[in-house]
């Protein structure tokens, strides 16, 4: 939680908005898709799972796998590492494979994923400037000082009116 405190702005994404943005991502991916379509989708857990499901549905991709990356903070002087790999027989070196995540921020997560699947196409719904170069296709860019709040981390709640009685 503390790592979002330095962020000046908040970008709150509803399920409806995420659904529309993930569909927009799928729409964009049609232009760069291989002639016979993508062989498989690899979702970066956990945030990439909902967008990957929506993209896979829109592009009729049935083979869906996951990759789990554990990030450590800099105090521990450790880099992110893969704690669960996708099926190597399915994904190979990433040729014809689509990697999906909810967002790229610093690009550290995608750095390790790209090292494993160098030929894959990388797609995220949202992107911040620091990590943008790590992504082949994305939908919406937000500034580096914006924290994106996803629907699975939020709940509807009462808010006080601007003007009290
Ligand atoms: O570009 P980066 O600076 O590496 O940050 C982006 C990653 O951070 C978040 O995942 P997180 O590691 O918090 O795990 P989660 O998806 O399980 O929430 C987000 O879902 C991306 O995967
Ligand atoms: O802006 C963000 N929102 C949610 N998770 C994240 N992980 C890195 N950056 C973000
Ligand atoms: Mg993630």
TrEMBL record:
It is found in: Cell membrane. Keywords: Cell membrane, Glycosyltransferase, Magnesium, Membrane, Metal-binding, Purine salvage, Transferase. Guanine binds at residues 105, 148. Mg(2+) binds at residue 102. Xanthine binds at residues 105, 148. 5-phospho-alpha-D-ribose 1-diphosphate binds at residues 46-47, 101-109. It comes from the Bacteria. It is a peripheral membrane protein. One of its GO terms (molecular function) is hypoxanthine phosphoribosyltransferase activity. InterPro entries: PRTase-like, PRTase_dom, Xanthine_Guanine_PRibTrfase. The keyword Cell membrane applies. SUPFAM superfamilies: PRTase-like. GO terms for cellular component: plasma membrane. Purine salvage pathway enzyme that catalyzes the transfer of the ribosyl-5-phosphate group from 5-phospho-alpha-D-ribose 1-diphosphate (PRPP) to the N9 position of the 6-oxopurines guanine and xanthine to form the corresponding ribonucleotides GMP (guanosine 5'-monophosphate) and XMP (xanthosine 5'-monophosphate), with the release of PPi. To a lesser extent, also acts on hypoxanthine. This is Xanthine-guanine phosphoribosyltransferase. It comes from Roseovarius pacificus.
């Amino acid at each position: 939680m503390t790592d979002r405190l330095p962020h000046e702005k908040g970008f709150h994404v509803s399920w409806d908005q995420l659904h529309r943005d993930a569909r927009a991502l799928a729409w964009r991916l049609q232009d760069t898709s291989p002639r016979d379509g993508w062989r498989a989708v690899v979702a970066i857990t956990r945030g990439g799972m909902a967008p990957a499901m929506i993209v896979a549905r829109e592009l009729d991709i049935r083979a869906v796998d996951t990759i789990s990356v554990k990030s450590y903070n800099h105090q521990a002087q450790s880099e992110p590492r893969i704690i669960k790999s996708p099926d190597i027989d399915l994904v190979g070196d990433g040729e014809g494979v689509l990697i999906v995540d909810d967002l790229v921020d610093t690009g550290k997560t995608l750095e390790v994923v790209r090292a494993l699947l160098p030929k894959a196409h990388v797609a995220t719904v949202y992107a911040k400037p620091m990590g943008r170069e790590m992504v082949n296709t994305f939908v919406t860019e937000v500034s580096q000082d914006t924290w994106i709040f996803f629907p699975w981390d939020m709940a509807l709640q009462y808010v006080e009116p601007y003007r009290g009685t």
